[in-house]
Amino acid sequence: MTRPNPVSSTPQFGVSLLPPSLRFPLVCLTYALILLASSFLALALRFDFEVPADFLQRWIRSVWWILPLKLLLLGLFGQYRSLLTFFSFPDARRLFYALGVAFLVQLAVWFLTGGVTMIPRGTIVVDFVLSFVGLAGLRAAMRMLRESLSSGRAAAFPLRRVAIIGAGAAGASLAREIQSKPGLGMEVVCFIDDDIQKIGRTLHGLQVLGGRRDLSRILERVSVAKCILAMPAAPPAVIKETVDLLNKTGVEHDILPSVDVLLEGRVTVSHLRHVSPEDLLGRDSVPIDQSAIEQLISGQIVLVTGAGGSIGAELCRQIARHGPSKLILVERSEPALFTLDQELTRDFNELLVEPVAADVCDEVRMRAVFKKHLPTYIFHAAAHKHVPLMERQPAEAIRNNAIGTLVVARLASEIGCKKFVLVSTDKAVNPSSIMGASKFLAELVVEQLQRVSRNVTAFCAVRFGNVMDSSGSVIQVFRKQIADGGPVNVTHPEMERFFMSIPEAVGLILQSATLARGGEIFALEMGEPLKIRQLARQMIELSGFIAGRDIAIEFTGLRPGEKLSEESTRAGEIKMPTLHPKIHTITNSTEAPDVIDDLEKISLQLHSLNDAQLRDWLCKRTGLDYPNRDF
Questions:
Q1: What is the pLDDT of residues 305-330, one digit of tens each?
Q2: Which residues are designated catalytic?
Q3: pTM of the shown model
Q4: Range with the poorest average pLDDT among 189-193, 209-213, 286-290
Q5: Angle of helix 121-154 relative to helix 20-46, nearest 10 degrees?
Q6: CB 428 within 8 Å of CB 468
Q7: Taking 50 as the threshold, does the pLDDT of residue 2 lie above it?
Q8: Could you say which of 3.40.50.300, 3.40.640.10, 3.40.50.720, 3.40.50.360 is the CATH number of the domain covering 160-275?
Q9: To which CATH superfamily is domain 291-471+499-530+569-622 assigned?
């Protein structure tokens, strides 16, 4: 069944049907009549409806300036801009302020003149109360009429019964939003909250039936079709526990995003989304010092390579929020570059965005780009990242990941760029794959360039684990396999990885840039690794299936270049704390080997050597642990 469109489900009636040229005069006339009636009724009440002629004349003389004053103040406080049929607490507050100012002005005039030409002070007070009640009552009645007509239209559609988990501010706002829009096709029937002081009480007319430990019993009792998690400030462990409970009940569930997202505006149904694996990381997200990033980025020229990729695009979004003077997008995929350019131009219309279609390995092209734009900060995210794919084409991995880094890093030093940040990976630690070894070479390149005489650029690298839902990630692979009905393929039962979300990874990159002084490798404290088979099971359950019954999990064996688990440091590296509690800096106890000359030589032979020779070259330069495999 197709649900009604929430926008079209609200009938248009009343003043909304009038042309704009008549709407404003009609609203003013309606307000004026109510204000006149309130003022006269206040006077009549003061004299028990037998108003002396003298005070009636005073009232008539006062009305000619008090009424325009009230109407003017109502306009200044935005009462003519808001729709009559939509009335909320902020509208009531502004209405109160407008009439309150008029009340204070009348009292001031009364005291200045001694009241000889004014209505009694008591009448002014009662007039203020009646005016507020009259106008607020009109707005409330119009809203009730709109909602009544909306309900009548929505009655033709069956409503899905919804329970909201979380009776805090977010849950209350969401419930009110759903109640005010029957066309959404949902009906909130109860709240669920662990706070014992809320259990048994009502919120927006809905009872808090119990806590999460009673979830199964409550859902069976009230028979709901969907649960909504409205706990934006809850730690991931609580979200994970709640989702596990919901998965056992088989009830569909959605979630409101983090409180950071909701701070951008009030809670609305449009914020709802399905629970994602990122919500179940099982650890608190890393706090980011946004003010430090703002000081770094604001007013600067920033260049991002690989801008069209998952990490590069999110880097551009977060950098754009901090007000650079120019943001240069370097990307060789034209469709990805076009899409990102359109998005940033739309969302940050005051930002100067320069899309550049270029390959980072093209030194002539990149030198022209650097000389034209003279970037202050460079974030190098361009890289090949898929381990199995790179195993069969080592030349391309070396070219793009290592030689490409050398090209842009050396140009950054030539133009005097302040900071160069290499986006690296934990697969560069004791690499067992072509991709990991090529990224290790990239790290060695920036370490070596840091030591070059006359270099003024602060080079650093940022290591992190797997990024959830990045392009081609295991999340996307599992999602496709689940959509196809399974099986979900896991290489090994003990395979585990460190995971982080895309925004979290990018926050780490930007935070590390603020800490960089030159020569560091930064790494995030990511907690405990997650078993890939556990991730597969969670994704199956999040999709509404039961692992092993509806969707099978099959173990296919390790692929070339894969490890069972990743490491954060290699022999000879020292991990030290930084000013950020969740970020460490990794430095080598010994000087990194010279790899730049080797890369320049191999760049001339990349397509003349065979794969076995290139693998042998990588093993000698990086210590790549490469058992004999049939490739």
A1: 999 998 999 999 999 999 999 999 99
A2: 427
A3: 0.63
A4: 286-290
A5: 140
A6: no
A7: no
A8: 3.40.50.720
A9: NAD(P)-binding Rossmann-like Domain (3.40.50.720)
